[in-house]
Write a structure and sequence with these properties.
The structure is a homodimer of 326-residue chains.
Chain A (H helix, E strand, L loop, with lengths): L6 H14 L8 E3 L6 E4 L4 E10 L11 H17 L4 E11 L5 H18 L4 E9 L4 E9 L16 E5 L4 H11 L2 H6 L1 H8 L5 H9 L4 E4 L4 H12 L1 E5 L5 H5 L2 H6 L4 H7 L6 E5 L9 E9 L5 E3 L2 E2 L12
Helix pairs in contact in A: 1-3, 2-3, 2-7, 4-6, 4-11
């Protein structure tokens, strides 16, 4: 493309203006983007806040994810953390660093992804502020806020012996999608593009977070680093062991069976170790009515040598470390 | 150093644990770091939020700023935006991306800088969440929150013809410090290390933000990109012209005179174009009692061809663009 407009040629102000104009307004924003701060309504008298970063070459590859995908994913990964507290996502601030040579069209498509994820996953939530800077690689840092609507936050530390362990959303699909992309097997990528799309544009079950809180979930988190690792986080915070029933994972594995065969991989690894579906893992009292979006996968037992058991076998904490990269 | 522990060798969880243990707790944190989200008190029923990013090689150089300096600066630059709304800074989330080879000691010193800036500039404010990721260059992205305590937010758009324009804090010192560092003149750097230290660890007059709001400031912002550029932001948002009285800038210039001579630079450029002191620029009704921390530097007049006049001369929007780099 000749003389394509870049964020460097337009400068920060004009680039931000073009980007912001593509965003939806958060219904909670009393003062939106453009001043020193946004002002956000917090009728509950509290708000929840979380932050997460996506780094080019570590968390994504530009040849695997479009700008739209990345905008979507940046929203989805963060609001899943909000949902995991039992809160409703209300507002986001987004910091982007990118090479000055980045075309403004890329940034605009990124903004479209932000807006679309908000509209689809958490209507009413929107971007209320941002920052644009120059860097050698693309870095996307999002902070998300949510409203508890009077509910108590659901922490990781409340799981009790006897509780039922349940998951809302999918397991292993994003990891399967990543393995497909990494295989370079284009036939397989095309045949199983549904799973590739979960990797690119995850759809965490945001509303299920509120449902779980209302049903009295004793502990909850979003599975960002894999079932094994994230179940261990609840187990350690609650001083219990989580025993996962392997037969209850079969449904999650079965749908990935053919994709696994196509690239000679074992779907079990994806289901137990893959995190980027950003599903919700929660524990419920055995007397609770578990919301329909949650599928039981195990039980909480007394703390033993292992934080997590798969059947009777200790489950290694397979999963993702964002610094080590494995 | 042999076998120094790095964030890569320790991994994200252990590195974060060591860092968080050095931080002060925010008094507003109902749930602190360690869960999916922090839970922050917002007794006002609203909160203000802003985000800003520091990028290695663009916003700082590791040979000019220590890890402690960068932690301090990341806090100071963000809470200045909170103060500029008339709010009290309450909580921060901090995302850091750094090479896996970064020593944990660097991250710990960075955390010390975060804590020290909170304790010194905004007691009670603290870091409530964070994220650590691997990247080729260091990137620090901070989101800051504040409490309006029932006050109306002071926007950029409220300046009225006849208002007095005033500044709380210093002008040009951080730019002078940067010029000294860039000069490579070690004698001058040592002789004027006070100004170098303003560049490294700015001390925005946080409390003056609340004072201005209580005094009925009609508009306010923090000067992050230079007096010329930031005054123009108030002027444009308020549809007025800001006329700065050059004689009222003389005090700001005089203290930088000798440093300017030492490296053959003109302090006027620093005072008008330098932004990183993060001082507060506000407008007040002529009948208002201007808080003692604010020094009048001009008046608001009817919108003319130029957003900002220095005396009768149009003032070009000298200043910093974080994408273009100039």
């Amino acid at each position: 493309m000749i003389n394509a407009e870049t964020i460097g040629s337009l400068g920060e102000n004009e680039s931000l203006k073009r980007t912001i104009s593509r965003l939806n307004l958060a219904t909670s924003a009393l003062v939106g983007p453009g001043d020193d701060c946004a002002v956000i309504s917090a009728p509950d008298g509290r708000f929840v806040v979380t932050t997460d970063t996506l780094i080019e070459g570590h968390d994504f590859r530009l040849d695997w994810s479009s700008a739209f995908d990345l905008g979507w994913k940046a929203v989805a990964t963060n609001i899943a953390d909000v949902a995991a507290m039992g809160a409703v996502p209300t507002s986001l601030v987004v910091a982007v660093a990118a090479p000055a040579s980045t075309e403004i069209a890329w940034l605009e498509a990124f903004a479209d992804g932000l807006r679309s994820a908000c509209e689809n996953l958490a209507p009413g939530c929107g971007v209320v502020g941002g920052d644009l800077a120059s860097a050698e690689q693309i870095m996307i840092s999002v902070t998300a806020h949510g409203d508890l609507q009077g509910r108590e936050p659901v922490l990781r530390s409340g799981a009790k012996v006897g509780d039922i362990v349940a998951v809302a959303g999918t397991l292993g699909r994003a990891a399967c999608g990543l393995a497909l992309l990494a295989s370079g097997n284009n036939d397989a990528i095309n045949a199983y593009d549904d799973w590739v799309n979960v990797q690119r544009r995850p759809e965490p079950p945001i509303q299920a977070g509120v449902e779980a809180a209302n049903a009295g979930a004793t502990a909850m988190l979003d599975i960002s680093d894999g079932l094994a690792r994230d179940a261990a986080r609840i187990a350690k915070a609650s001083n219990v062991t989580i025993q996962i029933n392997p037969s209850m994972l079969q449904g999650f594995e079965a749908v990935l069976e053919l994709a696994g065969q196509a690239i000679e991989a074992d779907p079990k690894t994806w289901v137990v170790g893959g995190g980027e579906d950003h599903s919700l893992l929660a524990t419920f009292s055995p007397t609770a009515t578990i919301p329909r979006n949650f599928k039981p996968i195990g039980t909480v037992i007394q703390a033993g040598d292992s934080a997590v058991l798969l059947g009777t076998q200790p489950l290694n904490e397979l999963g993702w470390d964002s610094v080590r990269g494995a």
